[in-house]
Structures are given as C-alpha cells and as structure tokens.
Amino acid sequence: MGCSRLDVGLLLLRLGTGGVLAAHGTQKLFGWFGGHGIEGTGQFMESIGYRPGKASATAAGLSETGGGALLALGLATPAAGAAAAGAMAGAAAVHMPAGFFAQSGGYEYAGFLGLAAAGLAITGPGRLSLDHALGHAVNRGWMVPTAFAVTAAATAAVIGMRTRRLREIAEAQALEEAEAAAQGGASDAT
C-alpha cells in the first residue's frame, strides 16, 4: 500500500510543528537560535512566576525539544504531542493577560502550537513515521488518554502553583503600598 495524501499532510504538519517546537526548546536548553540557555531562561521563568526557574526552564525546554523532535519523527506520538501541548499551555498562561493576538503579546502562537501538537497526538503520525515503521509499539490507542491525563494533571499543578505565587506577590505589593500610603498620610498629619 502506498502513502495517501493524509500521510503526506500529517508528515508536513509533524515536521513543521515539531521543528518549531524543537527549535524553541533548544533556545531554552542550549541558547541556540538566539536563545538564553538554561541560565537566562531560568531567570526569566522566575520573573514570570515559574519557580524554581532553572528547573522550570529545563522542563519547558525538554518538553519542547523532546516533544517537538519526537513529533517530527512520528515516534511515541501520543506522549510527544501531549508533552508539547502541556508546555504550550504553560506558555499560553503567561500570555493570557495580553489577550489572544500575538502582536499584542497574547497567547495565539502558544495556543496554536499546543493545539497542533494535541491534534497530532490524537490523530496519529500517519504511515510516514517511525511509529508506523516500528509497528506502533509506542503509539497505542490507550496511550492517548493516558498521556493527556498525566500531562493535564502536571500542567494544572504547575500553572496552579504559578497562579498562587503571582496572587501572593500581588497581595504583598498591595499591602506594602497601603502601608506606605498610611505612613505617608500619618506623616502629613503631624
């Protein structure tokens, strides 16, 4: 049996989505393509509430690099797509306050990459893939819900912790500002 248009389309989608994800991941891990490596990305992760920063940078970089490379190869597609989708959910959470469109700093780009990765995980890699060549040993039907359940739980926990940290920081800053204003008002009264 030959390859169908669907197989070629899935190959192109896998190569494009996986390649972009892997490139972004290597920016985080190795500083390639103008990235900041673990150190710089770790500092950035700390500044946006993902702590500890280096561990967060490593997890994001591995999810993007590994998930992207595996998607491009069509290997372990359910796990690869779920991992990449989880990383993009974490990125989308950062961009959410800026709205949808990327030109305004929104979550459009991260959301699209996550959706494409999730779609590939669910649909499968097609015949032009290592999964197909290996008899789908790491691309079984039960792996799709399992990979998404594990990823969803981990992603919800990480984003939840970040949200709590940001809320605590905002509350502490508001308290400091209120105390400073009260002190300023008290000194004005004397």
UniProtKB/TrEMBL annotation:
A Pfam family per the record: DoxX
Leader peptide range in chain numbering: none
Top-level lineage group: Bacteria
Annotated membrane topology: Multi-pass membrane protein
Transmembrane segments: 69-94, 106-122, 142-161
InterPro entries: DoxX (IPR032808), DoxX-like_oxidoreductase (IPR051907)
Subcellular location, record wording: Cell membrane
Keyword vocabulary terms for this entry: Cell membrane, Membrane, Transmembrane, Transmembrane helix
Recorded family membership: Belongs to the DoxX family.
Name by which UniProt lists this protein: DoxX family membrane protein
